[in-house]
């Protein structure tokens, strides 16, 4: 009974990779130094997994930015706009790579980044491959081979991890009409065969092919393409051991295809979809081994050994121990590195800590389950089992978890709780009279750059190196400077800048009951962007106002409207590690009531525009469409519960980014936000088509510049994007804004970009006046 891991966090327990990449981008370290840090992290991860007792250790799961981008570079799927910098002798291969992820604006070049979107229903973002009708592929990078050799030199014959060809194609987008990207398999597969050949020549015994689309709704053409892929690989390499990994849902109607593939092992996620086990055991042929994903790779709760052992035992009785592999449900990329880094009880109490398991601990859980199932090292394993049983029992009985008052409030929610007093047409008339905004009103999404200095203040006040009054004085000065800048540049609706906030979810979780936080529970969101998700362990409520003080202060120093900035209930849920002892819908409604209380207090404080960000609504959709209606019913309801407490003249905004809206546009409209702002610039306003075709009734702000790239767009670029938007959406409904918050950007580029953005809005107003 082998143990294996599908992937390990690459950022490092102290975010070493984040810091190294950002130091490279700012010129503080060389490419050689960055590469050396990457190698050090890989070796550390391999050694840790080896010492934990994992049999099949993954390689090529490391990335300096994103594993999908790595593969695009590997197979030569590099858009033509990067050819010039690739041919420039002044740029290294790393510069080419990062240019694709972040854009490139120096040395006389001005090149936009590739599009970015969410990795299935996670908060991880990947770089979307761009495909063209006459696309060609060639083996351009040997990263997978080099890292396999690197592990081998360290004494580990690793299991290289590759995104499978069909899943890779389906992750991308056609950038011209007249073909479907799946047609490119004929050209792509030979490059994979060449890569596999090099891995085999170096001594690879196992290769893991990630095929997540086997857990999604796919059509017959896509199914046939998957079958053809593995037939081709098996014909070329009859002896290589292939493990096909599926995760995040069950195989369902793709089961017969999955068990018929000419591979050695099939990995299934029995955490997210345990119901599939019996069907898989019934269908699995005698020559196929089964990898059981029994450890939750998406959440941080301690495994229930008794439950996992029952799953393993059921499988063993049908196919025998020698055909079973034990693993996490998916890559451990989605959980923090090591619970041992949590040493401060002010963050994480001993009691709650005993309920948790991070990546390193999950490796131990995998190995312990193998020992228990095999009756190996029985004394140590038996002690671990008893401790596991006790810890899980204590959690269920803990007085920290339950609050009857919260449960009663959720039970009392009615249809009226989730409904505005009047429809949008009536509300808009009141809001126009109240706010008196121009055509193409300009605003930002909420946050402004947080400098090292601002972050240091927050750290100092936590260490008692600054008093609360000193801290507030510094933040007031920063807030006032930001208000004055916005007035100076000519923005119509201002924000306070959020300098008191660490993260858009963490900040709220710190002030809500039912949440707990970690010191070092960092998880990669995209590139060097890491987040520290809150842990929702119990019933959620709001003891006191969370944002009123700073929003009210900002409004008191300007005559222009200032938006109150909140994170919505679905996003707080999605971007947290959520308790698994009650339905997610119940937890979400608890959060919605807490946000509703904050909305009411903001309105009572005189705030006329309140933004409730919900970038994660689309992300939370189940992978299978037949499960969408139930999710959308409670998630849209939660948003409406949070927002529907205000009067008609109070304008409710929401924000969504990196989402495809076509198939849920009715549900987005059902949210009934007065204004929705969305990411649109990287897709060149493609995402706006859904709103136009639907004739979206409320106001909309399509983002006109990409804040995830350091490049500063020109005014003409933004005018072009707004002109495209103007052909799709009536100008009376259009707002002008960036794609997302500006927290991660630098002030110099932010100021330049916003000046260009306001200039673009003014140009559009002049153009509209001239037309009239």
List the helices and strands and how they pair.
Layout: E1 2-3, H1 16-25, H2 31-52, E2 58-59, H3 67-74, H4 83-87, H5 93-102, E3 116-118, E4 125-127, E5 130-131, H6 143-153, E6 159-163, H7 165-171, E7 173-174, H8 185-201, E8 206-210, H9 220-236, E9 241-245, H10 255-260, E10 265-269, H11 276-283, E11 289-295, H12 305-319, E12 324-328, H13 350-353, H14 359-374, H15 378-397, H16 404-411, H17 424-435, H18 452-462, H19 468-489, H20 506-509, E13 513-516, E14 523-526, E15 529-531, E16 535-541, H21 548-556, E17 563-567, H22 569-574, E18 577-578, H23 584-604, E19 609-613, H24 628-643, E20 651-656, H25 665-670, E21 675-678, H26 688-694, E22 699-702, H27 715-728, H28 747-771
Parallel strand pairs: 1-12, 2-6, 5-7, 6-8, 8-9, 9-10, 10-11, 11-12, 16-18, 17-19, 19-20, 20-21, 21-22
Antiparallel strand pairs: 3-4, 13-16, 14-15
Helix pairs in contact: 1-2, 12-14, 14-15, 16-23, 18-19, 23-24, 27-28
């Amino acid at each position: 009974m082998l143990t294996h891991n599908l992937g390990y966090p690459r950022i490092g327990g102290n975010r070493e990779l984040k810091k190294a990449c950002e130091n490279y981008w700012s010129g503080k370290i060389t490419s050689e130094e960055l590469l050396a840090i990457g190698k050090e992290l890989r070796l550390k991860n391999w050694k840790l997994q080896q010492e934990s007792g994992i049999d099949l250790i993954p390689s090529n799961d490391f990335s300096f930015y994103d594993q999908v981008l790595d593969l695009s570079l590997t197979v030569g799927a590099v858009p033509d706009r990067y050819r010039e910098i690739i041919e420039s002798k002044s740029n290294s291969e790393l510069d080419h790579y990062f240019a694709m992820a972040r854009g490139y604006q120096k040395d006389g070049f001005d090149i936009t980044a590739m599009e970015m979107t969410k990795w299935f229903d996670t908060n991880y973002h990947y770089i979307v491959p761009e495909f063209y009708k006459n696309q060609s592929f060639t083996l351009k990078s040997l990263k997978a081979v080099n890292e396999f050799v690197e592990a081998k030199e360290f004494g580990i014959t690793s299991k290289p991890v590759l995104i499978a060809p069909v899943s890779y194609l389906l992750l991308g987008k056609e950038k011209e009409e007249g073909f479907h990207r799946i047609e490119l398999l004929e050209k792509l597969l030979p490059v994979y065969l060449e890569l596999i050949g090099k891995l085999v020549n170096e001594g690879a015994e196992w290769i893991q092919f990630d095929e997540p689309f086997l857990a999604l709704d796919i059509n017959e053409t896509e199914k046939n393409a998957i079958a053809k892929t593995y037939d081709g690989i098996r014909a070329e390499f009859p002896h290589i051991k292939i493990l096909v990994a599926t995760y995040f849902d069950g195989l369902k109607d793709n089961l017969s295809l999955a068990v018929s593939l000419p591979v050695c092992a099939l990995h299934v996620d029995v955490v997210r979809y345990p119901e599939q086990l019996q069907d898989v055991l019934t269908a699995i042929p005698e020559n196929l081994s089964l990898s059981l994903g029994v450890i939750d790779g998406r959440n941080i709760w301690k495994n229930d050994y008794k439950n996992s052992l029952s799953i393993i035992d059921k499988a063993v009785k049908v196919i025998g121990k020698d055909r079973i592999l034990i693993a996490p449900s998916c890559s451990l990329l989605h959980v923090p590195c090591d619970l041992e880094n949590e040493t401060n009880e002010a963050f994480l109490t001993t009691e709650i800590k005993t309920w948790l398991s991070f990546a390193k601990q999950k490796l131990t859980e995998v190995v312990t389950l193998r020992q228990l199932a095999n009756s190996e090292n029985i004394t140590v394993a038996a002690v671990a089992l008893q401790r596991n049983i006790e810890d899980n029992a204590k959690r269920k009985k803990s007085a920290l978890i339950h609050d009857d008052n919260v449960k009663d409030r959720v039970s009392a929610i009615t249809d009226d709780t989730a409904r505005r007093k009047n429809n949008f047409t009536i509300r808009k008339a009141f809001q126009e009279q109240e706010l008196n905004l121009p055509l193409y009103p300009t605003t930002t999404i909420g946050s402004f750059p947080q400098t090292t200095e601002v972050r240091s203040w927050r750290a100092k006040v936590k260490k008692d190196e600054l008093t609360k009054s000193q801290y507030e004085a510094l933040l007031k000065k920063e807030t006032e400077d930001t208000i004055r800048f916005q007035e100076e540049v000519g923005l119509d609706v201002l924000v306070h800048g959020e300098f008191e906030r660490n993260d858009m979810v963490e900040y709220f979780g710190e002030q809500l009951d039912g949440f707990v936080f970690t010191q070092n529970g960092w998880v990669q969101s995209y590139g060097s962007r890491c987040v520290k998700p809150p842990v929702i362990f119990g019933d959620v409520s709001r003891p006191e106002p969370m944002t009123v003080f700073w929003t009210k202060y900002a409004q008191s120093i300007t005559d222009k409207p200032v938006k109150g900035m909140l994170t919505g209930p679905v996003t707080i849920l999605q971007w947290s590690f959520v308790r698994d002892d009650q339905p997610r819908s119940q937890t979400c409604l608890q959060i919605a009531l807490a946000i509703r209380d904050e909305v009411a207090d903001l309105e009572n404080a005189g705030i006329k525009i309140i933004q409730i960000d919900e970038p994660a609504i689309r992300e939370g959709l189940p992978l299978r469409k037949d499960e969408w209606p139930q999710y959308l019913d409670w998630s849209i309801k939660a948003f409406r519960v949070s927002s529907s407490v205000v009067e008609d003249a109070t304008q409710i905004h929401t924000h969504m980014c990196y989402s495809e809206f076509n198939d849920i546009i009715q549900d987005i409209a059902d949210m009934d936000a007065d204004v929705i702002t969305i990411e649109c610039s990287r897709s060149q306003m493609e995402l706006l088509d859904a709103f136009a075709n639907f004739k979206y009734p409320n106001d909309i702000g399509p983002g006109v510049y990409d804040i995830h790239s350091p490049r500063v767009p020109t005014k003409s670029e933004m005018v072009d994007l707004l002109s495209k938007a103007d052909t799709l959406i009536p100008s009376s409904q259009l707002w002008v804004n960036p794609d997302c918050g500006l927290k991660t950007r630098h002030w110099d580029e932010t100021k330049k970009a916003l000046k260009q953005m306001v200039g673009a809005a003014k140009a559009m107003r002049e153009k509209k006046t001239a037309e009239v």
